[in-house]
Amino acid sequence: MTIEEAQKIIDEWITTVGVRYFNELTNTAILMEEVGEVARIMSRVYGEQSFKNPEEKPELADELADVLFVLICIANQTGINLTDALNKNLEKKSIRDSQRHLKNDKLK
Fold first, then answer.
1. Concatenated DSSP letters for the chain?
2. 73-78: long-range contacts at Cβ-Cβ below 8 A with a sequence spacing of 24 or more?
3. Alpha carbon distance 66, 72 (integer Å)
4. How do residues 46-105 score in pLDDT, each as one tens digit?
5. Measured distance CA(10)–CA(50) in Å, rounded
6. How many angstroms separate the CA atoms of 13 and 75, rounded?
7. pTM of the model
């Protein structure tokens, strides 16, 4: 699925199953909560923290999907085409960083 298709699918889901979008502030809070869940899993699976329950099965893919879902909700309700935004952002990064990373000794 393309980003544009994802934006349409999520909009359709929100207006049928979800009834309506939460407001932008609520979605921002939900986004922060979901990013926190990703951070919790990352720190325990890839970092030095441990799970309180060693039998816990972290669902990183599901949490990343939650982040993407809420991010797309925010884009939809603020009128942002994420395909265009990502293309512009990559162009900006390419111009800005065209030599920066190549010349970074820390990355060699």
1. --HHHHHHHHHHHHHHTS-SPPPHHHHHHHHHHHHHHHHHHHHHHTSS---SSTT----HHHHHHHHHHHHHHHHHHTT--HHHHHHHHHHHHHHHTTTTTTT-GGG-
2. 73/10, 73/14, 73/21, 73/22, 73/27, 74/24, 74/27, 74/28, 74/31, 75/7, 76/7, 76/10, 76/11, 76/14, 76/21, 77/21, 77/24, 77/27, 78/24
3. 10
4. 999 988 888 888 899 999 999 999 999 999 999 999 999 999 999 999 988 878 878 888
5. 34
6. 15
7. 0.87
